[in-house]
Design goal:
The chain has about 450 residues and is an alpha+beta fold. It contains 14 helices and 18 strands. It is elongated, with a radius of gyration of 27 Å.
């Protein structure tokens, strides 16, 4: 069921964006009197389709291959590779008969719509929900530092005062793209000493393999145990794939439950070391994988000692209550929220450009490229409208950027050839366009196979 919910959200989000993207091409073409023969969601590869109907001169339908969609514009060399039509004399209602500037607008139509959709989504989310953030000045206990944070010289309890000399108001800015993509200099207060810590611009490559918690988070004080994982006879069973591939299945062990720790217990110490903050608890427990530890906890005013063995994953199966840091909320009016939403959309577009640039220069691993499998996992197994629209807005801006790349077969590839035509004042030969389309198709298939391979390997922990 979880998989179906993830797939359903992905299908809904991508379908909306693909339809709107192709609508951009469709409306621009019709505005210039260019005939559109097909409008399809998904591809009807080899002539197979789920259904179709014809209205006017246009065939509308849904293909069987869910890797995007397309509009077939008359007189244009595209993914259909309709060479028979191109061999006939040009007609006044065909794409190739129109001025280069009109064809350029048609090719940019989908990208423009994706950008507009992204801006509208972030605009409406900002207007409806405003913005909440962690007040950095109220983090009196400073930050908790993960493995990567320690590598660059940060320590638990440090307080970040500024980024590149600019005062840090919102803690979230310290883990945003302005730090992780570009590298930054952090002004840090450690005790009474002010230090400067440089974040390398390659840190995102390491973070891609870990959670952002391995960099920095607000430092949380331990309050009490909120949850204790207990055995579930229905859930703790071998999966279909375990049975299919005859994989060894071991029922999960829940050390805290077995030892008698209960929700509401307040953990005082681990192996005799006093525990105040969650990072202290986590480090002490995870540092004793497969080892015996002693935990002292307070239950109804009475101290109790527990002896248990930490799991091989470095956990004992408890979820603590935290004393959460202070947050602030800002609401925006209808017009006031437009520039805020537009800035969020633009930042997403720029981050995509920076990410591709880092991959080209080798500062970011290509293993970060995700297929629909990876995107579905980000949507998650529970439906949340705010998360759904936020991710759909991010994907809309990502689609706009990806389609702008100068790869034959993508909108950006067509744009490049049109710009060349406008400069040299004559069109690029149809033979060149046909061959470029084939090369672009091969490139896109290779990228798709690579992306799916990435996500499949990640699913197996590789």
């Amino acid at each position: 069921m979880n998989g179906l919910i993830m797939a359903g959200q992905l299908l809904l989000g991508l379908s909306l964006l693909v339809i709107l993207h192709e609508l951009g091409h469709f409306l621009a073409a019709r505005a210039f009197g260019i005939k559109v023969e097909k409008f399809y969601l998904f591809f009807d590869a080899w002539g197979f389709k789920l259904f179709s109907f014809k209205k006017g001169d246009v065939e509308y339908g849904v293909g069987w291959l869910p890797l995007g969609g397309y509009v077939k514009i008359a007189g244009m060399i595209d993914e259909s590779m309709d060479t028979e039509q191109m061999a006939q004399p040009a007609q006044p209602w065909e794409f190739r008969s129109k001025p280069a500037w009109q064809r350029l607008i048609v090719m940019l139509g989908g990208i423009i719509v994706n950008v507009i959709v992204g801006i509208i989504i972030f605009w409406m989310l900002t207007f409806k929900y405003g913005q909440s953030y962690t007040v950095n000045g109220k983090l009196n206990d400073g930050i908790s530092v993960g493995t990567l944070g320690k590598e660059i010289g940060l320590k638990n309890g440090d307080r970040i005062l500024a980024i590149n000399g600019n005062k840090l108001i919102r803690f979230e800015d310290a883990i945003s793209s302005k730090v992780l993509f570009d590298g930054a200099q952090l002004t840090v207060l450690r005790g009474n000493q002010t230090l400067y810590v440089s974040v390398p611009d390659t840190i995102l490559n390491k973070l891609s393999k870990n959670d952002k918690e391995n960099f920095i988070t607000p430092r949380y004080r331990m309050a009490s145990v909120a949850t204790v994982l207990a055995p579930d006879e229905k859930a703790d069973q071998p999966s279909f794939f375990d049975k299919l591939f005859k994989r060894k299945f071991e029922k999960p062990v829940y050390p805290a439950y077995a030892a008698g720790i209960k929700p509401g217990d307040s953990i005082l110490s681990v192996n005799g070391k006093a525990i105040t903050f969650f990072d202290q608890f986590k480090e002490e427990v995870s540092g004793n994988k497969n080892k015996q530890i002693s935990i002292q906890a307070l239950r109804k005013g009475k101290a109790i000692e527990f002896n248990l063995k930490v799991g091989k994953d470095g956990t004992i199966g408890v979820g603590p209550n935290f004393k959460m840091p202070e947050t602030a909320h800002v609401d925006f009016g209808f017009i006031e929220s437009l520039p805020v939403g537009a800035n969020m959309a633009w930042s997403t577009f720029v981050d995509n450009a920076k990410g591709i640039g880092k991959m080209i220069t080798g500062k970011l691993s290509a293993r970060n490229i995700s297929s629909p499998i990876g995107i579905a996992k980000v949507y998650g197994s529970t439906f949340d409208w705010v998360k759904f629209w936020t991710l759909t807005g991010l994907i809309s801006m990502a689609l706009a950027f990806m389609n702008l790349l100068p790869i034959p077969g993508l909108d950006g590839g067509h744009v490049v050839f049109l710009l060349i035509e406008m400069v040299q004042r004559k069109p690029v030969s149809e033979k060149v366009l046909e061959r470029a389309q084939i090369v672009g198709f091969v490139i896109l298939i290779c990228l798709m196979v690579f992306a799916f391979g990435n996500d499949i390997l990640k699913s197996f922990g590789k």
